[in-house]
Automatic annotation (TrEMBL), chain A:
Protein name per Swiss-Prot or TrEMBL: proton-translocating NAD(P)(+) transhydrogenase
Key words, A-Z: Cell inner membrane, Cell membrane, Membrane, NAD, NADP, Translocase, Transmembrane, Transmembrane helix
Pfam families, A to Z: PNTB_4TM (PF12769)
Catalytic EC class: translocase
C-alpha cells in the first residue's frame, strides 16, 4: 500500500464522518433543496471528465471524454441552478428578480 | 511535492471547506441560499484548478480537448436551460435526472481510465475502485432515470412487478458480482467490463421498478448518496482528492437525508426498498 493510497483512504473515511455530522435535523421543507444541493456537489465529477480529457488518445477515449463531459456538466450546472431556484422561494420579496443571482453560475461548467 | 501540487492541494482544500460550510448552512431556511452559493463558489474554484493542472501536466490532443469542450457546452447548456425553465412541480424528477447523469459520468470516467491503461498495468489498487465506480455509477444512472420516469408519470407510479422478479433480480446481482471479481482479476478483458456495465444498469432498473411513486423521492435521495460514493471512487481512480472529499461528503450526507425523508413519511428505508417484493400491496 502506497502512502498516497493510505492518505486517500483516510481522507475518504474522515469525509464520510464529516458528511454524517454536517447536517443534523433538517426541516422537511428543506428536504428536496438539500437533496438537490448535495446532488450539485457531486457534480465535482466534472473534474474527472477534465482529467480524462488530458490523457485521451484514442477514438473511444475521445467518445468517453465527450460523454463524461456532457453528463458531468449537466449535473453541476443544472444542479446548482435548480437548487438556487428552489431556495429563492424561501425569500419572498426578491423572487421576482430571479435571473440576477443565478446568471453568475451558468458559466462554471464550461 | 512541486510548487504546483502545493497550490492545487490548498485550492482543493478550500473547495472542500466551501462544500462543508455550504452544506451546513443549507440546514436552515434563512441561510440555505447563501450555503448553496458558497458551495457553488467552491465548485468554480475546484474546476478552474483542475483545468490548470490538466493543461500543464496533460498529454492531451486537440481532439480530446475538443470532445471535452463540446460535451461541457452541450451538457452545461442543457442543464442550465432545463433548470431555469422547469415548472416548480416538476423539480424532483429533474433533480433525479441530474443525479442520473452524475452517476453516468462517474462510470464513463472509470471505463475511460481502464481503457487508457490497457489493462496490463492495472493493479488491484486501481481496478477495485474502477469496478466499484462502474457498478455504483451504472446502478444510479439507470435507477435514477426510472425514478424520474415514475415521478414524471411516464412510467406507472404503482409498484411494477412481474412473475419471478425476485429470481431475476438475484440472478442479475450474481452476474454483476461475478463480473466485478473477473474485472479485478483480468482487467484487460473488455468483455467482463461490458458484462459488469450491463448487469449494473439492469439492476438499477429492477431495483427501482417495484418501488411506488410516492416513495420515489426517498429513492432519489438514496441514489444521490450512491452517486456521491461513485464520484469518490472515480476520485480514487484518477487520483483527485477534491472528488474523494466531495463524493464521500455527499455519500454520507445523502444517507442521513434519506433516513430523515423516510422518517418524515413514517416509513423505513428498508421497507421502501423491499416494499414491492413478493409482499404484494404491503405498505408496511
Amino acid at each position: 500500500m502506497t502512502p498516497t493510497l493510505f492518505t486517500d483512504i483516510a481522507i475518504f473515511v474522515l469525509s464520510l464522518l464529516v458528511g454524517f455530522e454536517v447536517i443534523s435535523k433538517i426541516p422537511s421543507t428543506l428536504h428536496t433543496p438539500m437533496m438537490s444541493g448535495a446532488n450539485a456537489i457531486h457534480g465535482v465529477v466534472v473534474a474527472g471528465a477534465i482529467a480524462i480529457a488530458a490523457f485521451a488518445d484514442s477514438p473511444i477515449g475521445y467518445l468517453l471524454t465527450g460523454i463524461a463531459g456532457a453528463l458531468a456538466a449537466a449535473n453541476v450546472v443544472g444542479g446548482y441552478v435548480v437548487t438556487d431556484r428552489m431556495l429563492q422561494m424561501f425569500r419572498k420579496p426578491v423572487s421576482t428578480t430571479a435571473p440576477a443571482p443565478s446568471d453568475t453560475e451558468q458559466g462554471e461548467g464550461r | 511535492m512541486s510548487a504546483l501540487a502545493w497550490v492545487i492541494g490548498f485550492v482543493y482544500l478550500a473547495a472542500a471547506v466551501a462544500f462543508v460550510v455550504g452544506l451546513h448552512l443549507m440546514r436552515t431556511p434563512s441561510s440555505a441560499r447563501r450555503g448553496n452559493l458558497i458551495s457553488a463558489a467552491g465548485m468554480v474554484v475546484a474546476i478552474v484548478a483542475t483545468v490548470v493542472v490538466a493543461v500543464l501536466e496533460g498529454t492531451g490532443t486537440w481532439l480530446g480537448w475538443g470532445a471535452l469542450g463540446l460535451g461541457l457546452i452541450a451538457g452545461g447548456v442543457f442543464g442550465a436551460v432545463r433548470a431555469r425553465t422547469v415548472k416548480m412541480t416538476d423539480v424532483p424528477q429533474l433533480v433525479s435526472l441530474f443525479n442520473a447523469v452524475g452517476g453516468g459520468a462517474a462510470a464513463a470516467i472509470a471505463i475511460a481510465d481502464l481503457l487508457r491503461r490497457g489493462g496490463g498495468t492495472v493493479t488491484p489498487t486501481s481496478s477495485v475502485p474502477i469496478v466499484l465506480d462502474v457498478l455504483i455509477g451504472s446502478i444510479t444512472l439507470s435507477g435514477s432515470l426510472i425514478a424520474a420516469g415514475k415521478l414524471q408519470g411516464t412510467i406507472p407510479g404503482r409498484p411494477l412487478l412481474f412473475p419471478g422478479a425476485r429470481f431475476v433480480n438475484g440472478l442479475v446481482v450474481l452476474v454483476a458480482l461475478a463480473a466485478s471479481v473477473l474485472v479485478v482479476l483480468w482487467p484487460s478483458t473488455i468483455a467482463f467490463v461490458i458484462v459488469l456495465l450491463v448487469a449494473a444498469l439492469a439492476f438499477g432498473v429492477l431495483m427501482v421498478l417495484p418501488i411506488g411513486g410516492a416513495d420515489a423521492p426517498v429513492v432519489v435521495s438514496l441514489l444521490n448518496a450512491f452517486t456521491g460514493l461513485a464520484v469518490a471512487m472515480a476520485g480514487f481512480v484518477i487520483g483527485n482528492q477534491a472528488m474523494i472529499i466531495a463524493g464521500a461528503l455527499v455519500g454520507a450526507a445523502g444517507t442521513i437525508l434519506t433516513l430523515q425523508m423516510a422518517a418524515a413519511m413514517n416509513r423505513s428505508v428498508l421497507s421502501i426498498l423491499i416494499g414491492g417484493f413478493g409482499t404484494g400491496g404491503s405498505t408496511g
